[in-house]
Amino acid sequence: MSQDVQGPAHPSGEPETHRAADTTDTAGRTDTPDAEPEATRRDAGTTESSRANRSWWDRNADEYQHDHGVFLGDDRFVWGPEGLDEEDAALLGPQESLKGLDVLEIGAGAAQCSRWLAARGARPVALDLSHRQLQHALRIGGGLPLVEADAGALPFRDGSFDLACSAYGAVPFVADPVAVFTEVRRVLRPGGRWVFSVTHPIRWAFPDEPGPEGLSVSASYFDRTPYVEQDEEGRAVYVEHHRTIGDRVRDVVAGGFRLVDLVEPEWPAWNAQEWGGWSPLRGNLIPGTAIFVCARD
Ligand SMILES: C[S@@+](CC[C@H](N)C(=O)[O-])C[C@H]1O[C@@H](n2cnc3c(N)ncnc32)[C@H](O)[C@@H]1O
């Protein structure tokens, strides 16, 4: 992102404003601009956010998987750049309890987490908005069910799943998280769990830089105006939405869930790897990821 516009810790790991390359996707659609998009803070509704992010992830999936594929692993379930593994955290429940469960992974990307779940005997379905991300899931393989859909309109019957999970998928990008949570609740069976990770809200108050310049507050934590990158015509080409911690708790409750835990992973000594604005330097001082563990009673 540009230096003068404060925004989120970007999942692409690019601290600069993203270049929206002129590409043709696999469906033959030609997508947008040659010019560097402008980074700004302005309102962006559900439809604009969804459309912008779908095409952004289609254009950038190759680079994302190239840059982060080794860290993500083909069948690792990692909750964020700190490297907290579900293998150790067991936020979905003990590993031995996963066998035979129907699990929905939302914003699955290349479905690395779903592959980890399948290896433990669960029956995951990997859902993502981006066609290109799901092509990477196909490339890696594993024979998982893949569904191209928006998290705000889940194409499943009520009570189809025992668990739902998302590692940085969908939730940071949607204008109406309560609508997503309500959908997730609908497709979960009573007694189910919904566990999702997002950029820790406090990061929105700091520059998205891994070094010392990322340690000084530069924007209001309380400013909920979305971070938007837009083309020359003012059309959004990338959107992220900020909610404070309190907003997220209220959204979880409004979506019909009970909050069981809020995990803020600490940066472990073994992890020397930077991911965009996430770094050992900052990770040792301020949280970078928030993981919400929610129960569907
Ligand atoms: C940061 S990536 C995370 C992918 C994967 N969970 C991982 O850890 O690599 C965010 C993913 O969310 C997907 N996404 C964004 N908005 C979405 C939406 N409204 N519905 C479903 N998926 C969405 C993107 O296409 C992208 O694959």
UniProtKB/TrEMBL annotation:
Q: What is this protein called?
A: Class I SAM-dependent methyltransferase
Q: Where is this region: Disordered?
A: 1-54
| One Pfam family linked to the record | Methyltransf_11
Q: Which GO terms describe its biological process?
A: methylation
Molecular function as annotated in GO: S-adenosylmethionine-dependent methyltransferase activity
Which keywords fit this entry according to its UniProt record? Answer: Methyltransferase, Transferase
Composition bias (Basic and acidic residues) maps to 13-22
Location of the Methyltransferase type domain? 104-196
Record-linked InterPro entries: Methyltransf_11, Methyltransf_Superfamily, SAM-dependent_MTases_sf
Keyword Transferase in annotation: yes
Keyword Transferase belongs to the record? yes
Under PANTHER family, the record lists: METHYLTRANSFERASE, N6-ADENOSINE-METHYLTRANSFERASE TMT1A
